[in-house]
């Protein structure tokens, strides 16, 4: 087996010191351009492969940013991952990915891993049921965090770190208001619950908007964030409600299941049945009919979380404003 080419081999080939070769290969501007070119040419001809891990160790850093997400079977987390990957790569960093599957034990294991490998920063979308105590026990050393951290998409009450989120109460209010303005009086909230800040706040916003409009509180049907749950719950409700009805869904994923249930029951969405989602995933504009939803600006959330996690004394922003995107799944009675 051929011996690995090292900086010493390049130094010997070019007649320069090892330190000069190392600096020049990293593009140190103190060296003339022709010298850098000569060193890089020698490195290529000798078959030198740059050892990024060793370089990071010499500089006492890993150049990695840890990103911890929920369940990738939910397309919203794939969208988050793409945004995070783009943002991290634009900064010349590498991504260390953790998937919790909404399990706090898996989340804890990943946080310990991020600390052990020496990640520069952590972007965390907290798993279901995460508390301040869970995070402090792993991430806090005395009065400071062991790793620069920003939470995003979901918040954790009492955790002292930047938390980059949408105004989820407003999201719920926008969803309910759209259905009320369309003429609906028989409203049902499907999905969510109290295990995450987004779920609790969206539901509470919708209920408040409906009650303040002088209407009866909506039917509340908490459950998992899945197409299957949306389909099953809407099928059940449609079997006993033959008149107008509006389904306000915690997420687009649930709403897609509701649309399928309406089709299976022979109900025409956009006529006497309305379906409203939340998140504005890419696929929902191609649903039949296209889904009315609440747009959540993931790109802005992830970019701001990255800034917050890598910038000392970053000012904590207000919650971002959601936007109603009206499409054909919302009827006008």
Question: Could you characterize the architecture of this molecule?
Answer:
This protein has 333 residues and is α/β, with parallel strands linked by helices. It contains twelve helices and 13 strands. The chain folds into three domains: 7-50, no CATH class; 64-161, Rossmann fold; 168-296, Response regulator (Rossmann fold, 3-Layer(aba) Sandwich). The chain is elongated. Helix 1 packs across helix 2 (18-25). The strands form four sheets. Strands 2-1-3-6-7 form a five-stranded parallel beta sheet, with helices on both faces.
Termini separation: 77 Å
* Residue-averaged pLDDT: 91
Name the CATH architecture of the largest domain. 3-Layer(aba) Sandwich
Write the H/E string, N to C: HHHHEHEHEHEEEEHEHEHEHEEHE
The class by helix and strand makeup works out as alpha/beta
pLDDT under 50 segments (min length 5)? none
- Cross-sheet strand order for the largest sheet: 2-1-3-6-7
Share in helix: 40-55%
What name does the CATH topology of the largest domain carry? Rossmann fold
The total number of structural domains is 3
Main sheet, how many strands, which sense, barrel? Answer: 5 strands, parallel
Radius of gyration: 26 Å
Question: Shape from CA axes?
Answer: elongated
CATH C-level class of the largest domain: Alpha Beta
By CATH, the superfamily of the largest domain comes out as Response regulator
Strand content: 5-15%
How many runs of DSSP E, i.e. beta strands?
Answer: 13
Number of helices, counting only DSSP H or I runs of 4 residues or more = 12
Keywords: DNA-binding, Transcription, Transcription regulation
Domain HTH lacI-type: 5-59
GO molecular function: DNA-binding transcription factor activity; transcription cis-regulatory region binding
Protein name: LacI family transcriptional regulator
